[in-house]
Amino acid sequence: MADVITEQDKEYEAREAAMAPGDDQDMADRVNNRSLRPQSQSFVEFMSTGWDDNEPEIERYESAAYTPARLAALGAAFPGERLVIPAGQPKVRNNDCDYKFRPDSAFIYYTGLGEDYEAGSVLVLDPTDLDSPEAKAGQTHTAQLFVAPRANHYTTDFFEDPHYGEYWVGPRAGLKEMAAMTGLETHDIARLSDALAKDGVRMRVIAKTDPQITGIVNEVRLTTGDPDRVEHEGDDNKLLEFASEQRKCKDAYEVGEIRKAVAATKLGFDNILRKLPSAIGKPRSERMLEGAFNAISREEGNEVGYDTIIASGAHAPILHWERNTGVVGDNELLLIDAGVEVDSLYTADITRTFPTNGKFTDFQKRLYQAVLDSQQAGFEAAKVGATYSDIHHACMRVIAERLHEWGILPVDVEESLSPEGQQHRRWLACGVAHHLGLDVHDCAQARYESYQGAPIEPGMVFTIEPGLYFREDDLMIPEEYRGIGIRIEDDVLMTENGPEWISAGIPKQIDEVEAWMAQMAAEGAQNR
Ligand code: GLY
Ligand code: MN
Ligand code: MN
């Protein structure tokens, strides 16, 4: 057993050297000063013996059937080049406590992975030798996943490393397990530097994800006589852009996962509405409702896809009210923007606006219906071949018309809608549609011409989310409008036959919302 530990320790040292932690080492050593862990050889030997083998169960991920096509498309865009896609490192919260790790979305997309196992891992697309039979058969790259081996009971890391040691964090996947889960070739992360440096081919890296890996790539570029930093940044940005744009059209697996996220989000809203009647008037009752949603996100999925917005009364016009410190008052409008991220790390993005006591007043109905009509106009503009800009303009026209009808718009509708006008945007200053997927604002690194200006295609999943935001301090509107915010946000799949509301199961028509609230309030009363 002692021999095995020595070998593993050598690997560990090599890995440490490959990752070059440098300046962080002093800080890590100081954090270790609070440890009274025994150092004796007999302790180390005792800790390394007498454990039952704990082989974790390995299941092939469903996504493994989809990643080969994604990788092939990426490879075809960059033939002959080495592509480096890091998972990223955990972010330190303080000292030796990290935030929960979530890999970078490009890494998730191309590997199908998405657990704490993968912190520090790197996907490399290694270019196929152009003269090889594989290249002649059309293969451009081999996908290689560089990962840390398991820190199980054959290693001292088992009990010494609070980040990877299985004594600390439970069973993790290593090379064998990750190969089985993903179908990808796996290698020890200790060999990454050599693998990147081996032949001096042109490299691109997703540079923002892991500065250590970007550093290694730049080092290799220097040593292979390729020092033009500006050119490299351009190369790297192209890879980032491509990896973002490739995610625009979802495959069948992705659509299925987003549907699951939407279904889980419905359960989260149900739980909020069960809690709502008993929360009204209580201190920090926005937080009570946040807790009700977030509990479901952990039960049903990985967590929330973004910080939950619970905005009652005058908080509702604050676009990203995430403090949620307010009191939910009676007879107010309550805006809730929330989404569950499922275990595959796809998220929903849903907003509903509720009358806190369960019934809309006539005035609230008038405002709410304007937003609903605006959203429907956006949906009708969403066609294969149309653009996000078409959705935007359709939503905005309804908003401008209603504001004019109500005597709020200071100019006529056409003047407001003209590029020189835009006065209506005072009450809807944000965008009304965005891609949705692994990131709530998916594909965000795409170029303008691939996003706003690009034709909508089957397979795209996006939100439509107009609103009206009447701030409490807005002196340009009658007093009764002040302190009201309404947003209605749904998730849409574009199909060959037109758009589909994939969140149609979450009520939004006025009578449906009231019935839903009554049903959930009754359920909540029964459970109390
Ligand atoms: N929840 C963020 C957004 O709606 O875009
Ligand atoms: Mn959204
Ligand atoms: Mn939202």
Automatic annotation (TrEMBL):
It is an enzyme of class 3 (hydrolase). This is Xaa-Pro aminopeptidase. The keyword Metal-binding applies. One of its GO terms (molecular function) is manganese ion binding. The keyword Zinc does not apply. Keywords: Aminopeptidase, Hydrolase, Manganese, Metal-binding, Protease. PANTHER family: XAA-PRO AMINOPEPTIDASE 3. Belongs to the peptidase M24B family. InterPro entries: Aminopep_P_N (IPR007865), Creatin/AminoP/Spt16_N (IPR029149), Creatinase/aminopeptidase-like (IPR036005), Pept_M24 (IPR000994), X-Pro_dipept-like (IPR052433). It comes from Bifidobacterium gallicum DSM 20093 = LMG 11596. One of its GO terms (cellular component) is cytosol. GO terms for biological process: proteolysis. Residues 61-214 form the Aminopeptidase P N-terminal domain. Residues 1-30 are annotated as: Disordered.
